[in-house]
Amino acid sequence: MTIAIQGLGKMGMQIAEKLLLDNHQVITYDLNKELLDQSVKIGAIGALNKEQLVRSFNQNKVIIWLMIPAEFVENEIREWLTILPTNSLIIDGGNSNFNFTVKSSQLIEKAGSQMLDIGTSGGIHGFANGFSMMVGTNSKDSFNLIEPILKTLAAPTGGYKYFGRAGSGHFVKMVHNAIEYGMMESLAEGYNLLKNGPYKELNLADAADVWQHHSVITSWLNELCADILKANPELDGIDGYVSESGEAKWSLQMASELNIPLPAIQAAFDVRVKSQSGQINFATKLLAAMRNSFGGHNINKQS
Q1: Pairing verdict, β 2-6 and 63-66
Q2: CA-to-CA distance for 211 and 219, rounded, in angstroms?
Q3: 223 has catalytic annotation
Q4: Is-contact 17 42, C-beta < 8 A?
Q5: Torsion from C-alpha of 186, 190, 191, 196, nearest 10 degrees
Q6: Residue 11 in contact with residue 63, Cβ under 8 Å?
Q7: What kind and span of H or E run contains 117?
Q8: Which DSSP state fits 86?
Q9: What are the strands, taking DSSP E only, across 232-281?
C-alpha cells in the first residue's frame, strides 16, 4: 500500500520505517532536510514539497498521514486541500483536540475527500512493541481501506480499533492521556514516600522490581520506574519541571462542561502546573524521567 508521512519526528520516522519493513511504499515529507534524507536512506521516497508528494502517487489514491504538532494541523490541512485531488484521504495521527477534528473533517469532506483521526500511543517504543491506535472517521470505508497499514503498525503486540464518527479517535486518545497523568502521578508520589519515609535504606529499584512481578500495580509505567531508579537512584541531573501537552486540560474542560468529576486527574494536572513555577520534589523529577523514557520528551525545562 502507498502512503505519505508528513512529520518525521520521534514517532513519524518510526511509523515510516515500520511500514517500509513490511513492504508498504512510503513517501515522506518534512521541512527538516536531514530527517528527509534519513528517511530516503531507509527506503522512502522523499518529497521536497507538497506538489511533488502528490505526483509521487502516480494517480493512485492519495493518502497522507500527518504526524505533526496539533498547532500546525489546521494550516497544513488547508494547504493540502488546495492541491489534493478529490477522494484523497488525510489522517491526523497527532494529539489534536477532538472538537477541532470534527470541524476539520467537515472541511475535508466539503472538498470531496475524507479524514481519519487516529490517536496514536506507544511513544518511542512503538516501533519495537507496536503502536496503540484509536480511530475515528465518518467513512468506515476509509478505515477498511487503511486497515493493512494499521495492522503493520500494531505488530507485534500493539492494537487498533474503530470507535465511530469523526473526532472519536482523538477523544479516546485525549482521555487515555488524562488517565496517564493520574497513573504517573500516583507512582511518582508513592516512590517519593518511599524515598522520604522512615526507612532511609530502602532500595527503590528493588521495590519497583518486586511490584513488577504480578503485583496489582504491575504496569509498563512501573517498569519504566524500575529502569529509571536502577540507573539513577537519586534522579541526579533532573530539575523536576514537568510539561503538560494539553490533553489532560482538554479532558478536564470537557468533564467540567458535563459535570463529571475527575479529582485524581485534576490533582495530577495541578502538580505539573505547579512544577513549572518551581514547586519540585523527587516525585516531579520521576514524572519528568518517565515522560522522557516513554516519549523522548525533554527531561529538563528548555530555556
Answers
A1: parallel
A2: 9
A3: no
A4: yes
A5: 140
A6: no
A7: strand 114-121
A8: T
A9: none
Residue type, 87: N
State the catalytic residue, choosing from 180, 185, 189, 247: 180
Q: Which of 173, 185, 189, 195 is catalytic?
A: 173
pTM: 0.93
Reading the block at residue 173, the C-alpha cell is 486518545
Q: Please list the pLDDT of the chain residue by residue as tens digits (303 residues).
A: 999 999 999 899 999 999 999 999 999 999 999 999 999 999 999 999 999 999 999 878 999 999 999 999 999 999 999 999 999 999 999 999 999 999 999 999 999 999 999 999 988 889 999 999 999 999 999 999 999 999 999 999 999 999 999 999 999 999 999 999 999 999 999 999 999 999 999 999 999 999 999 999 999 999 999 999 999 999 999 999 998 878 899 999 999 999 999 999 999 999 999 999 999 999 999 999 999 888 777 778 764
Measure the CA dihedral 171/269/71/16, to 10°.
Answer: -70
Sequence-ordered list of residues with C-beta below 8 angstroms from that of 18, at least 6 positions apart, any chain = 126, 127, 152, 153, 155
**Which of 39, 110, 28 lies closest to 77, judged by CA?**
110
Give the Cα separation of 161 and 194 in Å (integer): 39
The rounded Cα 145 to chain-centroid distance in angstroms is 23
Does residue 249 have an active-site annotation? no
What is the number of alpha carbons within 13 Å of residue 11 lying toward its C-beta? Answer: 24
CA pair distance 124, 15, nearest whole angstrom = 10
Q: How many other β-carbons are positioned within 10 Å of the β-carbon of residue 106?
A: 13
Q: State the Cα–Cα distance between residues 100 and 130, nearest whole angstrom.
A: 27
Q: Give the contacts of 220 (CB within 8 A, at least 6 positions apart).
A: 294
d(CA 225, CA 227): 5
